[in-house]
Amino acid sequence: MADPVRLTVLISGSGTNLQAVIDKTSQGQLSTQIVRVISNRKDAFGLERARKANIPTQYHNLVKYKKQHPATPEGILAAREEYDAELARLVLADKPELVACLGFMHVLSPRFLEPLEEAKIKIINLHPALPGAFNGAVSSHSLLLSFSFRVYAVGLCGCDPGGLDRYISDSHRTECYRTCPCGLAGREDR
C-alpha cells in the first residue's frame, strides 16, 4: 500500500469541506495525512475541527503585514506579497505533496504559487461555482444568501482539478475546470 498523500489545507471559515476530508481519511476511504490546517481567520471553526482530529493548526493573519506598510496601493501590495511569501514558507516547512484551498478567502499571488511550483507541490482550489459565473465579493448576509441561491439555481459547482490558476483575472478560461452536480435540486427549503 502506498504512503498517504501529505496534505496541507488552507481555510477561512467553518471547515465543512475540511471535515469531509477528515471523515473520509479516518474511514480509510481517502489515503491522506493532513499535516496542517492553516487559516487566515483566527475564529474559523475549521481550526477547531482540525484540533479535534489532532491535526496541527496555524493562524496566519494578513492584518499583521498590512500594519507594517502604508495604506497605499503600493503598501497593500507589499503587505500581501510578504504575507504570501511567509505563507509559502509555512506550507513548505511541512513538506506536503498537495495543498487544498477549501474555502480559503484569499487570492494567492505568485509569491506563494512560485515556491510551491518549484517544490512540485500541487494546489487544488475548491470553489462553489465556475470562475466568472458569479463575480464580486459577498459583503453581507443577504448577499451571501443571494449568491448561494444563484449557485443552487444553476445546479452546478466548480472544481479546478488541474491546480490553482495563477492568472485569476482571466475568468473566461475553462479548459481546466470540471463541473459536477450540487445535488440541491428540490431542496429550496434548506
What can you see in these coordinates?
The protein is of the alpha/beta class. It has 2 domains: 5-127, 3-Layer(aba) Sandwich (Rossmann fold), CATH 3.40.50; 129-156 and 164-190, no CATH class. It is 36% helix and 20% strand. The protein has 6 helices and 7 strands. The protein has helices at 16-26, 45-52, 62-66, 73-93, 110-118, 141-154; strands at 5-11, 32-39, 57-59, 98-102, 122-127, 156-160, 178-181. It has a 7-stranded mixed beta sheet with strand order 3-2-1-4-5-6-7. The model is unreliable at 137-190 (pLDDT under 50). This is phosphoribosylglycinamide formyltransferase 1. Pathway: Purine metabolism; IMP biosynthesis via de novo pathway; N(2)-formyl-N(1)-(5-phospho-D-ribosyl)glycinamide from N(1)-(5-phospho-D-ribosyl)glycinamide (10-formyl THF route): step 1/1. It is an enzyme of class 2 (transferase). GO terms for molecular function: phosphoribosylglycinamide formyltransferase activity.
Q: What structural keywords apply?
A:
190 residues, seven-stranded mixed sheet, disordered C terminus, 6 helices, Rossmann fold, alpha/beta
